[in-house]
Amino acid sequence: PPASAGLGKRNSPMLTLTFPTLMTERLVLRGPEASDFAAVACFFADETRSSGFGGPLDRTEAWRWFASMIGHWALHGYGFWMADSKDGQTVGMVGIWYPEGWPEPELGWVMFENGEGRGYAFEAAEAIRMHAYKTLGFKTLSSNIFPGNIRSVALAERLGAVHERDY
Questions:
Q1: φ, ψ of residue 54 in degrees (nearest 5)
Q2: Do strands 80-85 and 27-30 pair parallel, antiparallel, or not at all (unpaired)?
Q3: Are 82 and 90 in contact (CB under 8 A)?
Q4: Fewer C-beta neighbours within 10 Å, C or N terminus of the chain?
Q5: 164 — alpha (psi -120 to 50), left (phi > 0) or beta?
Q6: Residue 20 contacts by C-beta under 8 Å, 6 or more apart in sequence?
Q7: What distance in Å separates the CA atoms of residue 93 and residue 79, rounded to the nearest whole number?
Q8: What is the 8-class DSSP label of residue 142?
Q9: Residues 6 or more apart whose Cβ sits within 8 Å of residue 89
């Protein structure tokens, strides 16, 4: 049999992660779950919507991104939260990303099509920024925005950010 025979037969996860839940006026920010992958894959399949976030990605690449997002939580103790509206719809992902080689942690956001234009990204980013500074002890955050993404620039400015440099 191939060397991989027997992999995947474990019924329980080998790693247990605890994600803090953050509440805002209209959102529940929670850790990612396996059932969130369909929405993430749909987002990354849309070239227009995902281009500012490294997309488009096929399902296999989207799965790798999703798994790395969860791994980021295991390595750093923070990452991207899934943003659910109070009526239970998953409307986006907002969180802190700090991959190897980056100069500082990034506060980033993605709203899915059903969450755009409602102020959810600002509401979630503001709550996560507060959590980063007050609970996690961060001293700095950045937002890396692809040139031309005027909606994200406007949101970053609304959060009080200013353009510091091209990276």
A1: 90, 0
A2: antiparallel
A3: yes
A4: N
A5: alpha
A6: 31, 131, 135
A7: 10
A8: B
A9: 114, 115
